[in-house]
Amino acid sequence: MEIREQLIRINPYSRPGTKIRPTKVIVHYVGNPGSTAQNNRDYFDNLATTHATYVSAHYVVGLQGEVIRCIPEEEISYGASQGNKYGINIEVCHPDKTGKFSAVTEEALAELAADICKRRGFDPGKDVIRHYDVTGKKCPLWYVEHPEAWLTFRERVRALVNPPQPDKLYRVQVGAYRDRKNAEKQVQELKSKGYNPIVKEE
Ligand SMILES: [Zn+2]
């Protein structure tokens, strides 16, 4: 996952420059099927001149898994009402109106969310949330209508933040011999005492 930095202009409609101290990652869907990360980033930037509405996000994840940073994480973005004061907003592109993210998009989203959690010490289990969890809006649509897909996604982020440790084994050894016969002798002796030894070659 590579982040392309394309900061939008400072302006009252999408990047007022207000400082925040983020404590959550808030996930959205763009709600505009087929639009690209670049389209959405440029829309936010053009609000500086169109004045059409107040909306933006810190990041947009695109249809090919591309990631654009639009606003620095320590500045407010306009994505989730009251959540803007504490949230890093991530908008995510989707091919159709179901709002389901493609596999490559979801992978990049998981990597981005995990990267933020690692850098900022966030707990993926409670600090990665949906827009829905802030305001009840059906956003991101697929994760609201398929709560199990949301749980799977969060588990994926958690696994990236805390990779499982390889299983360790602790072996008990009573000897090591150059001559196989001596090893067999030791086996017989242990067997006579009720143990169940095996010989392993290295
Ligand atoms: Zn949203």
From TrEMBL:
Keyword Phosphoprotein: no
EC number: 3.5.1.28
Annotated keywords: Cell wall biogenesis/degradation, Hydrolase
Cited Gene3D superfamilies: Peptidoglycan recognition protein-like (3.40.80.10), Sporulation related repeat (3.30.70.1070)
GO molecular function: N-acetylmuramoyl-L-alanine amidase activity; peptidoglycan binding
Residues covered by the SPOR domain: 164-202
GO biological process entries: cell wall organization; peptidoglycan catabolic process; peptidoglycan turnover
Enzyme class: hydrolase
PANTHER family per UniProt: N-ACETYLMURAMOYL-L-ALANINE AMIDASE AMID (PTHR30417:SF1)
Protein's recorded name: N-acetylmuramoyl-L-alanine amidase
Organism: Ligaoa zhengdingensis
High-level lineage: Bacteria, Bacillati, Bacillota, Clostridia, Eubacteriales
